[in-house]
């Protein structure tokens, strides 16, 4: 039993959450994003829209099937006959079926991103090929229905069965998985078992142009083109009266769609979209005045996030009906920047840079969106603030202070510009007003605030003022710091001033602000929330706000409401701090992420009401928030790679779904394989996006080229990335997105490989290896030859060295020999000289001896003549004989000849051999001539006279066969 109760509670909570999430806001107009034909660059007319399993959107455009990936638009395929596409449907495998003008078929995405269209018209019988627009296409479990006014085509098992009308079909309807057609003669007919079955008592429908049928508890709800809405039940057709009948009957219904929560969105031809609930109450009317670019609605579809996509006769619109935020629009576009808003006496007042405006708030909340803001005359310039003080509404304007009563304004004080007013806590009848140059005082007299005077002693701009319980006045100056003022007893002048800036504890003296939360003063800084320490009087970080808001953001606004919720603007984020049942606190920011960068800097303003309305004044108008409207902000979505192209040497697409790509640019890769690129295509350009359509411009991306980069990049809003000069490798390009709610998408990847240049391929390396081998062989061969040459040269060198050494040795030996020869020569010369001297001496001695002997002989000869010859004759003859013997000198001559031949190279022998006729006396004479003796020196040596020597010389000349002119001495010396 307990389990059942728990389940029941759980189902109740889930159902309640679903209902809350399904609520359509009645207050304000949802955010609308218009996509013009100039934006998507295709035909203006669009007829249908669908979303595949990934979240990609496709539109039936006059030019073909158009794809939108959140960033880029492109035509991805066209029918075979190039006609306009009128209807789309998709199966569980993301095969898209399309109906065109005179054609229908399907398209599938290939590995390279391209969509290939296959027409099914060739399956039709010859008599059934003449038909017009295929207005509806529906995918069943194992069958596809193509509807045209000329027939219904049932495609199954690659065959088509044609269901013909009796005359013509008016329309096609899908009602709770049952399918009907309206025959102009037979009425409503159901498609069942591949045939048409008439629905009883519906022939009356034949005269009504029914655009859409819904099944409700009250019966069938019929949307007719011009007659409004009807309920069909129990064979009765009754009008369904709504608050929007005046709109529906006058503006021709074109299409309808059922929304969760019991709402119906009805598209018209002339007044845009009308949203009603199941009771017929008007919830929204979205037309051109409310922001829709065109009022002819051709189709409506809800995407996975609950957003409403609208195809128009001209353009496409995204309406964020699931958002808790909406815009309080004025169709007159009178208001611009909103500096403040205030709901007072059922009127909504807005302070703008063009004056003050108001509208009836209760009427507007009832769904009467055509209620306009009205201008309050008297204030045409910047109205900075609004405030209700003791039941009186005051406006603070550039020229002074005004009292607002209904739709009129009365100036109560002309000042040099008024920023805001604050009531003194202990004096509720005194109002302190901050101006451009100081403070003013107003007093409550007779239910009206009356100007008193300007307070003396302080002349700083006082745009931001708070007053604590002790009536200390805190004035924040954005560029100087914080002033703490104390007024004198009569409130006419400032009695004391204390100044706080960075030196007093603030992280900076710039952009300081002051707020009052639960009677306590806090200060907004560029680094979190600060407060004054009671003991030290220094400014210190507040621990509560430090815990929930941190210390890194600029606190631009703090404001509490009557439900103890603290609203804040921290940095660019808006949020609130709520107390939980367990006494803790939690922050909530996600519902307000759309408000980023929308505030007027320095004039952030939030207004709350007891009914739960929250109004944000922005530079783009007034934004309304309803806390009861819930939304799942953690929805999963995908990032996608839209296009990949190689840049060099020319743009060459590798992956793209664009239809205008030349077929040769994209060659289909086999399933599971990835592109393999030559090294010349090593520069790639990636285009990517995310299939998240809520504030798509604020989506951020990070990427990572695995194989080239070490990790993910920083987050960026760029949707393209380019890489150049990629080295050869296998790569994986990763991309993921982060939407405005900080939800990170599923990543998309693209694998590819870049081949090395031809000089770094395997074949090149093989060739290099072979060349290296040849080179090594050549080097070895060369080294071997070189070694052999070096060896030969070394041998030759060694031989040369040896020869040189030998030559040097020989030279040295020769030198030594020469030296020895010189020594020998010297010795020989000395010997020769000695012997010559000896010979000469002997010769001289001999000559002398011979001379003596000749003298003796001459004396003996004389003695012999004088004495008796008979007496001494024998003795003298003996002496004469001895002397003759000595004169012969044979013995001495032999010694002389031996020495002479040694000295003169065997002169005597050579001369004798050459001239054998020479006698011994001749030889002696020649020897003496060789010794360069003269005739007188020779005569004694030969023992003859000078005349005898001359005669002998003459005989020798003949024997030597010398001419008369020849010098015999020279001949002997040179022989």
What does this molecule look like?
With 975 residues, the chain is of the alpha+beta class. Among the domains are: 122 residues, Immunoglobulin-like (Sandwich), CATH 2.60.40; 110 residues. Helix content is 23%, strand content 38%. The strands form 16 sheets. It has a 4-stranded antiparallel beta sheet with strand order 1-28-27-26. A 4-stranded antiparallel beta sheet has the order 2-3-4-5, with no helix packed on it. A 4-stranded antiparallel beta sheet has the order 6-7-8-9, with no helix packed on it. Strand 20 and strand 21 form a beta hairpin. Helix 6 runs antiparallel to helix 8, helix 10 packs across helix 12 and helix 10 packs across helix 13. The N terminus is likely disordered. It comes from Flavobacterium hydrocarbonoxydans.
List the helices and strands and how they pair.
Elements (H helix, E strand, L loop, with lengths): L1 H21 L9 E4 L1 H4 L5 E6 L5 E5 L2 E5 L4 E5 L7 E6 L5 E5 L3 E6 L5 E5 L14 E6 L4 E5 L2 E6 L2 E5 L5 E7 L2 E6 L3 E6 L2 E4 L11 E7 L2 E6 L4 E5 L2 E4 L5 H4 L4 E7 L3 E6 L4 E5 L4 E5 L10 E6 L5 E5 L3 E4 L5 E4 L9 E7 L2 E6 L2 E6 H5 L8 E3 L6 E7 L2 E6 L2 E6 L2 E7 L3 E7 L2 E9 L2 E8 L2 E8 L8 E4 L5 E5 L3 E7 L6 E7 L12 E5 L2 E6 L2 E5 L6 E3 L1 H7 L5 E6 L5 E5 L2 E7 L5 E4 L16 E4 L4 E6 L2 E6 L12 E8 L5 E5 L19 E2 L6 E7 L9 E7 L13 E4 L5 E10 L9 E7 L7 H105 L2 H20 L1 H14 L3 H8 L5 H11 L4 H8 L3 H14 L8 H7 L1
Parallel strand pairs: 59-64
Antiparallel strand pairs: 1-28, 2-3, 3-4, 4-5, 6-7, 7-8, 8-9, 10-11, 11-12, 12-13, 14-15, 15-16, 16-17, 18-19, 19-20, 20-21, 22-23, 23-24, 24-25, 26-27, 27-28, 29-56, 30-31, 31-32, 32-33, 34-35, 35-36, 36-37, 38-39, 39-40, 40-41, 42-43, 43-44, 44-45, 46-47, 47-48, 48-49, 50-51, 51-52, 52-53, ...
Helix pairs in contact: 6-7, 6-8, 10-12, 10-13, 11-12
